[in-house]
């Protein structure tokens, strides 16, 4: 029997959150994927790890026993990686991503990377995809997590669903035409949102536009508009719009890792590997 490190990390996320849905956010996977991974781990252990009901999650005796082993296994794994790779790992890596991707995908990855390779300096650039791609091409940014636009080449990290959000009071949904807040012209998120609206025949107006995810969320929170955003970046301050409320389904976004041709250093290789391994999920 082999205990996959990815399954153990998902298991510990569930233990810490005591919720599959909250754990899914932490490991950047869907609740369905988390449930499937826990099921695979239970099959390998041969015993149930959680007691489940509609609201609560609790560890079984086997789950409590595995938790101790899992924490020791992963700690030793990370220490071993650090011991053998840290001496050769120093330098600087510049990574870019839009603000919603930074907040939703990077904290856990960068924390583990920083623990393993403390001598590597990380520069993080927050900008939209349309700005980051030319900077990667010019060699000003080593790695960037961006949305695939047109023929942009890069390694697929994940395919991210798009969802509509509204304010808690739902004021914008009562207006006709529907006010919509959109990302900046040229962005793939804007393109797929507008395409969905056009297909639906819904009466709407492009009321606001911004390159900033935070700005779009603020407009939605104020009840001024609805917006289509990446599912992983929906904050608790707004509500998702259900399919029964008349808004069309939006095509998902391909989130990819692009890399400068000049980014060939060992730290760049290590960070790219960590991003592809840990930032994915569906």
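^ structure tokens above, recovered residues below v
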């Amino acid at each position: 029997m082999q205990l996959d490190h990815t399954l153990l990390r998902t298991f510990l996320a569930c233990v810490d959150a005591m919720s599959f849905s909250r754990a899914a956010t932490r490991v950047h996977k869907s609740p369905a994927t988390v449930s499937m991974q826990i099921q695979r781990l239970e099959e390998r252990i041969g015993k149930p790890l959680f007691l489940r009901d509609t609201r609560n999650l609790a560890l079984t005796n086997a789950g409590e026993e595995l938790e101790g082993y899992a924490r020791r296994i992963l700690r030793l794994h990370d220490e071993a990686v650090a011991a053998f790779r840290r001496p050769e790992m120093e330098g600087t890596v510049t990574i870019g991503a839009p603000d919603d991707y930074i907040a939703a995908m990077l904290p856990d990855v960068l924390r583990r990377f920083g623990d393993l390779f403390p001598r590597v300096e990380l520069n993080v650039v927050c900008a939209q995809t349309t700005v980051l791609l030319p900077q990667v091409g010019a060699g000003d940014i080593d790695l960037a997590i961006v949305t695939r636009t047109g023929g942009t080449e890069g390694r697929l990290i994940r395919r991210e669903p798009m969802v509509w959000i509204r304010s808690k009071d739902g004021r914008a949904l009562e207006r006709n035409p529907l006010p919509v807040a959109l990302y900046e012209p040229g962005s793939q998120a804007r393109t797929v949102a507008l395409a969905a609206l056009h297909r639906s025949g819904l009466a709407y107006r492009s009321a606001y536009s911004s390159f900033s995810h935070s700005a779009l969320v603020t407009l939605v929170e104020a009840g001024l508009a609805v917006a289509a955003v990446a599912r992983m970046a929906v904050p608790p301050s707004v509500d998702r719009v259900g399919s029964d409320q008349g808004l069309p389904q939006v095509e998902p976004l391909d989130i990819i890792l692009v890399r400068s041709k000049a980014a060939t250093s060992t730290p760049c290789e290590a960070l790219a590997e960590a991003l592809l391994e840990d930032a994915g999920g569906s």
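Residues 61-85 form the longest helix (25 residues).
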